[in-house]
Amino acid sequence: MDFKNGKELLELCQREGLPISQVMRRRECVLGETTADEVERRMTRALEIMRSSAMEPLKNPHRSMGGLIGGEAKRLAAHTAKKRDICGPVLQRAITYAMAVLETNASMGLIVAAPTAGSSGVVPALLLALQEEYHISDQRLLDGLFNAGAVGYLAMRNATVAGAVGGCQAEVGIAAAMAASAAVELMGGEPDQCLAAASTVLMNMLGLVCDPVGGLVEYPCQSRNAAGVANALVAAELALSGVPQLIPFDEMLSAMYNVGRRLPVELRETALGGCAATPAACQRCGGCG
Amino acid sequence: MSFISVFDVLGPNMIGPSSSHTAGAAVIAGLARKLLAPPLARVDFTLYGSFSKTYHGHGTDRALLGGILGFATDDARIRDSFQIAGERGLAFSFTANETETELHPNTVDIRMENAAGRVMTVRGVSLGGGKVKIIRINGVKVDFTGEYSAVIVVHRDTPGVVAHITRVLSDHNVNIAFMRLFRESKGHTAYSIIESDGSLPDGISGQLMGNPNIQDVMLVQS
């Protein structure tokens, strides 16, 4: 039940007549030498943590450790309550939750790295927003998480999810690719459409640098998680409507990895370039000693 | 290639904000505390590289202290570790060393002193994603990750000790995954580190100590 790349994953799905989530569940049981019950228990716990990390800042905003963020999610929710939002319900909720999870993370709250702490808002945000709008059960959301896990596993295996190696495209980009694929399965798409959506995200976020102000997982990370979830929705919509994706997921992942490794070191989590090196950011940070 | 679990992708469950600077820091300190008999009286941390520059904003200091207090990466008490250490009578300090730049960017030295007055120093590095490595114990270069259960034997570098260790492990039916010996210099103190699948029987410590050339035995269960 193992697969080394997207092509093998799609062949497995085809041969077994299973969605990506089920293939990933079976792989976990066999290769992880564990039971289906244990795997479900652990993923249910991950979903619980994701939900509370997305909801808590709406009630109790927290200032971040580095002091750069805090309160953004509550602000977005208040804006929506006044019916002044322009994104529509799914995207509006998704960006609110994505911002919220990063606020929880930056204030030393409990989160699930997905695939990293700095990109932990994207997957929960999209799943929870879809659940509310389309009344999806928690059991189905777990399917979404296993599907997302399959895409993230391929990225960890065949490329990188570290901003220090591949830039933000490898962190928020991969998180968004995972979320897009999960959304397609939840909304009734086929496995090949899932990977097409993941590929589209990587294409659309190609080259995004990692340039955290003060070297902290706060800014622009929080806003980029919101942008990541928007990219995921766009890609999922394209895939579900049958718009073809020319570049297979495996080739796009490899292209992302190659671009990432060519990014100068200043743009790979060192806080020496990009947003981090702007005068406004330097003034706010007061860091480099 | 080792198995990548779905919970390596959607995980770890952790107190933020950084898998390397927060979760990894707690894991390093958690390993260090298992190397010295409790209770601890004092712990001093020296931070290098990126750790030294960003430790406050990443909560690296709270996570290190939390790890020493035995908190896992998803334990919310990490946030309050300064206060909890105070309540438990554990003295602590943090020093940022920005002059030493040849080390891995996320390196920490941990000097621990227990109530009996014994001192131990441990150097750990955080590799990203919550993965870590212990690379020095009391100044001697070592290498273990805590992903496997490990027994660390401090002994004189003299013939027969390794045979004694493997005999004891064999008597307890322990299957060795990795075994390595590190030493300061020929004939002086050596560290043998044996990693095993599954947990190690507690009884092996006493039996290992039966050899007069063995000075100390530490068990780090995975």
Write up what this structure looks like.
The complex is a heterodimer of chains A (289) and B (222). Chain A has 289 residues and is mainly α. In chain A, 65% of the residues lie in helices and 1% in strands. Chain A contains 13 helices and one strand; from the N terminus they run αααααβαααααααα. Chain A has helices at 6-16, 20-31, 36-59, 72-81, 89-106, 122-134, 138-158, 163-166, 168-186, 191-204, 221-240, 249-262, 279-285, and one strand spanning 110-112. In chain A, helix 6 (122-134) packs across helix 11 (221-240). Chain A is globular. The N and C termini of chain A lie far apart (52 Å). The longest helix of chain B is centred in the first third of the chain and has 15 residues, at 19-33. In chain B, 45% of the residues are buried. In chain B, strand 6 (131-137) and strand 7 form a beta hairpin. In chain B, the strands form two sheets. Chain B has a six-stranded mixed beta sheet with strand order 3-2-4-5-6-7. Chain B has a four-stranded antiparallel beta sheet with strand order 9-10-8-11. With 222 residues, chain B is of the alpha+beta class. Chains A and B meet through helix 2, helix 3, helix 5, strand 1 and helix 7 of A and helix 1, strand 1, helix 2 and helix 3 of B. Strand 1 (110-112) of chain A pairs antiparallel with strand 1 (13-15) of chain B, so a sheet runs across the interface.
Helix/strand class of chain A: mainly alpha
Helix/strand/pairing class of chain B, anyone? alpha+beta
- Pair with the biggest interface: A-B, 52 and 36 residues
Q: Radius of gyration of chain A from the CA trace?
A: 18 Å
- What is the radius of gyration of chain B? 18 Å
H/E element sequence of chain B: HEHEHHHEEEEEEHEEHE
Number of strands of chain A: 1
What is the terminal separation of chain A in angstroms?
52 Å
N- and C-termini, Cα separation of chain B:
20 Å
Strand content of chain B is 35-45%
- Percent of residues of chain A in helical segments? 55-70%
Uncertain parts of chain B: none
**How many helical elements of chain A?**
13
